[in-house]
Structure formats: structure tokens, C-alpha cells
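thought: user wants a sequence for this fold. calling inverse folding tool.
action: design(structure=
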């Protein structure tokens, strides 16, 4: 098994770090989405390094758009989805100095060669290095012949699936509920009118919006680790009590909920990662009211009964369509 398969983030960071001695990045660098280990390799007395991510990452500035430049170089870790790849490239290009360079790095199986052609529509792209199963490509700001769209608002996607719905590149199931979410929504319980409800991993707010539409008096809180998702969620679920940025229930403080509901994220970048799901299950009892309920939908292949039983006294399956299961867990 190659390192790109087993640990793609470490492999990408190693690829970029090994090439730094051959690449002039100048004295003001934007590291977009890269690992903290790479930031430490970039640090030099004559250089300022700004680490930015739209998603929660340790030691990074987390916000929907890059911190203001200008930067002599923007090092962009190739995002997973193709539409997010292009948006992130435009955002980085918009933050560069006139003579700055956008440098993108990623794995061949992640689509870096396809993105080379996509980025090439903006200007002349060069390959700086191709090693193992990865590649580093670059586009100079002066070589851009197309229009750069650097603002998040430039990428707003407005769907109308029976209602107005805002999304952005990189968000899950824009516009219409995915099959797992649809199964979960079909088995939502009735709640007290003043119930506190948390949508964990809310994305643009599909679950919270449906709950609010069915039971307008409940108090909704949306939590997600993606700052761009929360921009969409504030538009899609304007009646919510709060929209919180975080990657664990610790972001809710001492709040307790009558129900925590989630179609939890199961990937970090290109790799399946169950850590957010497992952390949610472990932390949920301390953030539920005495009679509170945790409601989850996950793919059927992911066995959860023992994991849930370790944290809850009562665990049951509310629905199973052969692809997804809806789990209910409580300590009441």
C-alpha cells in the first residue's frame, strides 16, 4: 500500500517539503489547506507564513476566504471535489501579488493531472516536479489571462428544489437531500415545542431546515467544521438560534440538547476517517438533556451497535434501507 493510499495528507506534505529547496516561494507565503508540518518547513527569518483553511485545522486561520495578501506564493493543497479545487485556486490567485505564483500539490489519483488541464484554461501552467504518485504545478499571477473570481460570493450556487437553497463548492449534497439524509428525515421524532436541537456536521443545513419547517418552535443550533458551510447555513436556516464553527461538541460549551441529530462526515480530505463520528458518540452523553436522544444515519457497512452501546444504555435501529441505517441512542 503506497503512502498516498494510506496517508494522503502526509504524502502530500512530504512531496511539497522535499521540493521546497528547488522552488522560490518568496518572503510572504500563504499555505492553503496544508499540514502544520509543512508550515514549519517554510518558516525562515526573512519569510512570513500564513496558514489558512476553510475547515477547522490546528494552528490555521479558519475562515471562508484567505487572509488579505498580497502573497509572493500561495501553496494550495489540492481539495477533494473538483468544483472546490477551482474555487480555492481563484481565491488564492486573488490574494497574490502581481508577480506571485499559485503552487498546487496533490496526488495523481487525487486528480492533480486533470486539475492541471483545468487550471490551464486560466493561463500557462508548468509542472514543477512529479515524484512518485504526486505532482506540483504552478501558475504565475502575471500569466493569468482569464478572469479571476476571488470572493466567496462569486461562487454562490442557488438551487431551487421547491425552495431557495444556497450552497458553495465543496459542500455535500447541494440542493436536494442525499439518500441517507432523506431516510433520517423520514424517521424524525416529534419534539417538545421548546426543544433544543443540535444538527452536528450540519453542512448547508438540510436537516436543520427540515426540522424547523416541520416543528417551527424548536430551537436549532447548527455545528460544522467548515466555515463556508456555515455561510450557506445562515441563509438556508435563518431562524436558527446559533451557527457554530467547530469539529467537536466542545464548541457548544455547556449547552444541553433534547436531540442531537447528524449525518456525520466520514472523510477528512481524500481519506475515510471515522474520528468525527466516534468523537460525537463519545461526547454526546455529556451534551444531552436527561431524556435526550442521539439520532444518526450512517452507511450500513459501518457497524455502530457496540460503539453506541459503550456510551448509551439504550440503542436501536429506526430504519434500514439496505444502504443506510438510522440509529437511535439514549440514556433515559
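)
observation: tool returned 332 residues.
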Amino acid at each position: 500500500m503506497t503512502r498516498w493510499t494510506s496517508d494522503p495528507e502526509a504524502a502530500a506534505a512530504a512531496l511539497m517539503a522535499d521540493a521546497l529547496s528547488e522552488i522560490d516561494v518568496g518572503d510572504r507565503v500563504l499555505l492553503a489547506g496544508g499540514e502544520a508540518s509543512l508550515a514549519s518547513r517554510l518558516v525562515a527569518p526573512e519569510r512570513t507564513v500564513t496558514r489558512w483553511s476553510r475547515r477547522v485545522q490546528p494552528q490555521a486561520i479558519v475562515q471562508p476566504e484567505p487572509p488579505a495578501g498580497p502573497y509572493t506564493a500561495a501553496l494550495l493543497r489540492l481539495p477533494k471535489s473538483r468544483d472546490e479545487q477551482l474555487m480555492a485556486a481563484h481565491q488564492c490567485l486573488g490574494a497574490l501579488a502581481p508577480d506571485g505564483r499559485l503552487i498546487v500539490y496533490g496526488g495523481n489519483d487525487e486528480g492533480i493531472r486533470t486539475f492541471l488541464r483545468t487550471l490551464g484554461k486560466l493561463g500557462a501552467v508548468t509542472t514543477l516536479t512529479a515524484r512518485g504518485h504526486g505532482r506540483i504545478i504552478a501558475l504565475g499571477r502575471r500569466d493569468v489571462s482569464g478572469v479571476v473570481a476571488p470572493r466567496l460570493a462569486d461562487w454562490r450556487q442557488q438551487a431551487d428544489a421547491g425552495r431557495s437553497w444556497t450552497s458553495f463548492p465543496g459542500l455535500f449534497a447541494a440542493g436536494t437531500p442525499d439518500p441517507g439524509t432523506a431516510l433520517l428525515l423520514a424517521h424524525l421524532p416529534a419534539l417538545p415545542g421548546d426543544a433544543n436541537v443540535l444538527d452536528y456536521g450540519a453542512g448547508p443545513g438540510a436537516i436543520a431546515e427540515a426540522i424547523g419547517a416541520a416543528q417551527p418552535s424548536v430551537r436549532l443550533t447548527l455545528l460544522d467544521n467548515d466555515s463556508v458551510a456555515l455561510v450557506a447555513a445562515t441563509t438556508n436556516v435563518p431562524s436558527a438560534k446559533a451557527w457554530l464553527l467547530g469539529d467537536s461538541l466542545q464548541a457548544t460549551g455547556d449547552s444541553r440538547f433534547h436531540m442531537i441529530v447528524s449525518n456525520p462526515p466520514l472523510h477528512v480530505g481524500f481519506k475515510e476517517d471515522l474520528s468525527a463520528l466516534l468523537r460525537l458518540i463519545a461526547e454526546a452523553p455529556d451534551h444531552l438533556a436527561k431524556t435526550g436522544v442521539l439520532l444518526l444515519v450512517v452507511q450500513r457497512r459501518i457497524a455502530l451497535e457496540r460503539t453506541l452501546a459503550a456510551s448509551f444504555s439504550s440503542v436501536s435501529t429506526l430504519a434500514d434501507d439496505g444502504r443506510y441505517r438510522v440509529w437511535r441512542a439514549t440514556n433515559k
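thought: summarizing for user.
answer: Here is the designed sequence. The first strand starts at residue 28 and ends at 32.
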